[in-house]
Structure formats: structure tokens, C-alpha cells
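Target protein
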Amino acid sequence: MPVYTRETLPKLLEQTVNNAAQVYLFFGERYLCRDAVEKIEKQLLQLPGTVHPVDGEHEDTATLVYKLRSFSLLPGRQIFKVIDTRLFFSKTVAKNIWKKVIKAHEAKKPGQVTRSLSAFLSAGGIKADISEHDLSQLTPQQWQHAFGFAKPDEDLSWTVEPLLTLRSQPDKQVKNAADSAEILIACLEENIPANNILILIAEEVDKRKKLFKYFKEHHVVVDLGVEAGSSAKAQKQQKSVLLALIQQTLTEMNKTIVPAVADRLIERVGFHPVAVVMELRKVMLYIGERQKITQEDLDAVVGRTRQEALFELTTALTAKNLRQVLLIADRLQANGLHPLALIAALRNTTRSLLLFRSLQEQSHFGYTPSMSASAFQNQCLPLLKENSAWKKELSGHPYALYMQFKTAANHPLQQLQQWMRLLLQTEMRLKGSPVTPQIILQHLFFTMLAQQQ
């Protein structure tokens, strides 16, 4: 059977009205999957019926199969919807799930860490009690074998607490994925009651698995994946998805938006489909009966995110624009950003500039400020990446790195070293001086940039 995509989803919805399937698999971006499933449910429930949601963390294939085979006492269609199913996991998708674990840990979201870590262990086919302590007890060989990628170098002792949580909840322990797949295939090959419908939702799937191939051949599969990364192709696809969601959300309340304002909303929120929709709905409620959304409306409700404003601040600093630096720093503090967080952002930027500027001093890398982006990518970058000590700093998009090197070329090493000293002094003043943070920061910026004007 053909695999449906975002472009062909309307065709599937139209077919579902008169010719509903019994089994569906939706995989890809989380919000897009749930949004599509809601639309399918709406079509399916044009006839009487009931939706029975199942959380993937508590998924039990034997129980699900029993319900699919049973005739219900409830009238109409019985839709069994498994959210975040793990039936299609394998170590092929483990690396992507690990990135989500790290992201949740860095955002200090323990519940999400536990959920993602449980999915990660499931992808590796191991139980939460693989070690007595934490994932750091795994040898590099064990980690590679289980998850299919090299074990991270950093300290993993922070996994102790979420692993203890998983061990205390037996219903979340990893089941044998291969056995579960065989049980489900055997069930679906039988004639299950006509009113019973199965919908599976997954963020990650291993397309090489027997279960996925079976679904692709015999049932409805909808691929709602969006290319990740910062390449031009990925960003174009991500923007296309967000613009479609914006248009869909506007249509719900008969609103319109200036195209440039829609672009600005995307810039401020980033590729977070659910956040784009939520923020847009806030703006639509804010304007009331008025139909068109303007830039002023967006600024009043959404405003600049702290990440965007911090980027503007560091950009103004490296451009030696004192007026903009003072203005943006005041705005950030007014919006509740702690002065020490502001110093941390400036320190990270200065440290990167210092590294890139010092690398330019080493002639064997062949960098010159006048070289083109393609020459930098083809000649300099491969030599720079030979040193694993700079792996993290040089992991960005080649053009972004090229622009950072060009920026660093405008700042002498002595100046950047002085900036680091000034930032340290300012941090100490913020922690122990009776002078207001605003004055301390203004003094910092005048000292860093006044002589550059």
C-alpha cells in the first residue's frame, strides 16, 4: 500500500468517510501526528463510537490484542489509540531518542527525562535494571552493542534518579519487542471484529523492522516526519510545515495575518509546531473581533523570546554597537532575565570568538578573512575538525561557522582576552557589590565598547 504524507493526507481523510481502514500507523513529528489522528478520529466517529487511548509507557501488547479480538458491549466503532507506541523501536532510532533525553535533562524536566529514558532503553531492548547504579556502568562496548552509537564521554551519573523511578514502576519495564510484534501481526492477520479499529502513533520507527514492513504492505501508514537540522533543505521544509499550520489555525477563527508577521512568528518560536499554534491562538484571542493580525499584535502577545534577544545582544556586541547593546540588555532585564544569565551568554560568545581567533593565528589551517565560504568549508574546516578537542565548537553548520570565523577576525586576541577578564570582574561585582545590576552592566558595556566607537 502507498505511504501517505502531509501532502496526501487530505486524500486519506476523504477516503476514510466511506471506506475506513481498520489499522493505521502514524509516525513522525509529535504534534503533526496527533493533529492528523484527531482528523481521522473525527471522520471515523461520524458513525457512533468510542476512543480508547493507551499511553505507550503502559503499552501491553497482549492486553491490546485481547481487546482487538473481543466484541464490545459498547455500541458503534471501538477505536484503540496507542500514543507513543514502542513496537517499532530498535537501536537504529536510539541515537535520536538519546538526543531527546539530553534535551529534557538540560531543560530540567525530570518527568520528560524519565519518559524519554524509558523509550531509549526500550529502543536498546534492555531493562531499567541493567546496572545497579546508572548508565555510566555500561562499558563502551555494551553501549555500542545496545544502542548502535558510541557512548558519550560526559558524566552520566544524573541518570540514577530517573532509572530508580523506572525500576519502581514495573509496568514501564521493557518488554520483548520481537515477541510483541509477532503477537500483534498474528492478531491482525485474523479477522478482528469489523467495528474494532487500531491507531498507532510513534515519533520514531525503524523502517527495517518486520513489523513496519508488514504495516506498510497491509495497512495504512502515514509518514509525518520533518527533516531535522539547519541545512537549507531542512529549514525550507520546516518553514513549509509551520506556514501550513499557521494557515490552518487562522482558518479556524476566520483570521488573516500579514506574511511578514507570520515569518516573524516562526523566527521567534522556532521549529516547535505545537508552540507556533499555541502562540498564534493567543494572538487571535488578543485581537478579538478584528480580523487581521499585525506586527504590533505579535509584539504585544508573543514578543521576543529570551533566546532571540540574547542572540541580538551578542550580535550587537560583536558588531561593536554600544547603543544597541545597552538597549537590548535593559530590555532583557526588564523581562526578568537574571544579570548572571546575561553574563553567561556573553562569556560563551566571547569564549567562542577567542577560540576561533586563536585558530586563525595558526597558519597551517590556511584561514584568511577574505576567503569564500566554499573555500573555508573545503580547505579549512576538514583540517580544523581533525582535532577532536574542538568537536563541539565545530559541530555547527559550515556556513554558520564561516560567519563566526569572519566575526572573530574583527577582534584582536588581546581585546577578547580583556573581555574575558572584564566579564569575570563583572560577575564578581554582581555577586557582592551594593551597586545595582543595571549600573554594573552598563559600566561593563562602556568599558568593552566605548573605545571602539
